[in-house]
Design brief:
The radius of gyration is 13 Å and the shape is globular. The mean pLDDT is 94. It is 0% helix and 50% strand. Strands 2, 4, 5, 6, 9, 10 and 11 form a seven-stranded mixed beta sheet that branches. 29% of the residues are buried. It has 117 residues and is mainly beta. The chain has strands at residues 4-7, 10-12, 18-24, 36-41, 48-53, 59-61, 69-74, 79-84, 93-101, 104-107, 111-115.
Length: 117
């Protein structure tokens, strides 16, 4: 059973922007009540942490995206976002959202982000 659903990926040129969204597939829990994060996995590489946001809205970023990406959430819409600006070819990857709920990690299916000329 899918617990999280990502959207917003696509093909952009270097320097462009994308906004990814992540929402629960069911309405039985809320994004503001648990820690959540964005991860990515590029071909031939391990999955890596991109950004996290706590239930208290504290945020952390990987050094490679600091200053370019912003993680946020809209509790009223029950959606988490990743705003990605000044995209680089090395940002190309499948992006996954994650939530940690009662000692269990839940993952979305992933959305492809490709940065290329």
């Amino acid at each position: 059973q899918v617990q999280l659903v990502e959207s917003g990926g696509g093909l952009v040129q270097p320097g462009g922007s994308l906004r990814l969204s992540c929402a629960p597939s069911e309405s039985i829990w809320h994004v503001g009540t648990v820690p959540m994060g964005w991860y990515r996995q590029a071909p031939g590489k391990q999955r890596e942490l991109v950004a996290t946001i706590s239930s208290g809205a504290n945020t952390n970023y990987a050094g490679s995206v600091q200053g370019r990406f912003t993680i946020s959430r809209d509790n009223a819409k029950n959606t988490m976002y990743l705003q990605m600006n000044n995209l680089k070819p090395e940002d190309t990857a499948v992006y996954y959202c994650n939530a940690y709920i009662r000692f269990t990690y839940y993952w979305g299916q992933g959305t492809q982000v490709t940065v290329s000329s």
